[in-house]
Amino acid sequence: MLDFLQQQIPLAQWIDAGVDWLTQHLSGLFSFLQTVGQAVMDFMTNTLSAVPPLLLMVLLAITAYFVFHRKWWIPIIVFLGLLLIYNQEMWQDLLNTVTLVIISSLVAIVIGVPLGILMSKSEVAKSIIQPILDVMQTMPGFVYLIPAVAFFGVGMVPGVFASVIFSLPPTVRMTNLGIRQISTELVEASDSFGGTPWQKLFKLDLPLAKGSIFAGINQTIMLALSMVVIASMIGAPGLGVGVLAAVQRSDVGNGFVYGVGIVILAIIMDRFTQAMNRPSSQQGQRLSKKKRMAINGAVAIGVIFFAVYGVYQASSGSNRGTITLGYAQQDDQVVSTNVMAQVLEEQGYNVNMTSLDIPVVWQAVANGQVDANTGAWLPITHQAQYEEFKDDLDDLGPHIDKEAKLGLVVPSYMDDVDSIEDLDDQANQKITGIEPGAGIVSATDETLEAYPNLSDWEQTISSTGAMNAQLERAISSEDEIVVTGWSPYWIFQRYDLKYLDDPKGTMGEAESIDTIARLGLEEDMPEAYQILDNFEWEASDMESIMLDIEDGADPEDAASDWIDENRDKVDSWVE
Prior knowledge:
Keywords: Cell membrane, Membrane, Transmembrane, Transmembrane helix, Transport. Strand 1, helix 17 and strand 2 form a beta-alpha-beta unit. The protein has helices at about 1-5, 10-25, 25-50, 55-65, 75-85, 90-120, 125-140, 145-150, 155-180, 185-190, 195-210, 210-225, 230, 240-250, 250-275, 290-315, 330-345, 360-365, 385-390, 440-450, 465-475, 490-495, 520-525, 525-535, 540-550, 555-565, 565-575, and strands at about 320-325, 350-355, 370-380, 395-410, 430, 460, 480-485, 495-500, 510-520. The strands form 2 sheets. Strands 3, 4, 5, 6, 7, 8 and 9 form a 7-stranded mixed beta sheet that branches. The chain is of the alpha/beta class. It has 27 helices and 9 strands.
């Protein structure tokens, strides 16, 4: 018994083996679903994008006017909210988010309502489904990203997969609850008149349980919307990307703006869903059949027109192909990716920039779902990722050669500390770190083990933005702080900082930042491959753009300004 308690059950290994088995044996199915799902969502996004923004705002406001019994205040709020999103240049992000939420919600409803009906009719089914729903509802949403990436790679499809799992339970539970709460007298009356099971379902159960079912659907839509931020970590485009970027950089202003955008969308979708759940007596006078047919026909013609126009616009653009650049929300990758995207666009390529978490970037390049990444810190920081995927990707070499550096950093006013060996009880014996997936976090852990004077120290894992905020707060009050630092990075131009000497070399020597590409890119797009291969600049170039961004410039504008000021260097990349 004691041996059993002391021996760890290999639960993680069992789950990994199960996921690997599914990935290997159902890869064809997952590829099919990825292809079909992406096509459907591209079609929907292109259709929405084809509608002029102001026209779509007016149409939604008019729809709200009639849906909400000709009350003016709701359509005004809808119009002004959407106008604010458009003013803040978040319109395309909004459309991507709407696509993600609608598709996720529809899939969850199609699955959830039948499951809820099954639970209401069978105690055995209820006893099986109930604990599964408990797990789905209490499991952290981040966990669903892992199998989503394994099955479908990156993009909107895995985002939908994770959103469906996360948002499904309310629809199932409320459908089951609504049907079970129907009066037994009504059920017995239906049976006494010879009602068949299907007649009872469609003429008694569903109509009387409509309120509960729509309440569950409403919650499903809200939960799907809440997943947009999490799904952005695996390449799902939308408002979540802006929120994630703001969190990583501790950018309160932009984070709040993107948060307001999500709130506006949530309010609109919530109110429209609630309107669908009004009792029939509150629906107002019905339109005549002829008027309904005319309105439905006009809507159908409009949808077909904009759908065809959207597909035409998406396919008729004159470019040399589409290339996808994956990047993590870290300053060096944001800068280099924006610069390279604009250079490739100048050469006639259509460039998609996909924001991903660091380990997912490497996996996406190795799987061929992302064409290239310009943020591989080698040979130390991303050593683990490189060893795992080196046979499945193409290392194009450094664009910043041996100018990158990792280390422990302190403010210069901590003059009693110049080396890691000098650390004793400063900063409450804590090192402020960044994201757990970063290589510098592993290097810091090794440093804590290698230096005896750090035996009582610990690394506090947070995020790059949180670390920056802590550093600024400490410097403003001249408090002691030790952070994980790297170059190139803008903090060395903003603050008076110093690296601590590392006698044992656990934080590594000078590194390079390489460009990595998927296998086959050289054959598929030789000119783009050559530009990526020629890409080379200095750390000072990157830091100057970083500082502009930190001072409030948009990353795209800061990259454009640098390109204009360094045209000779850029021209050498495209020769």
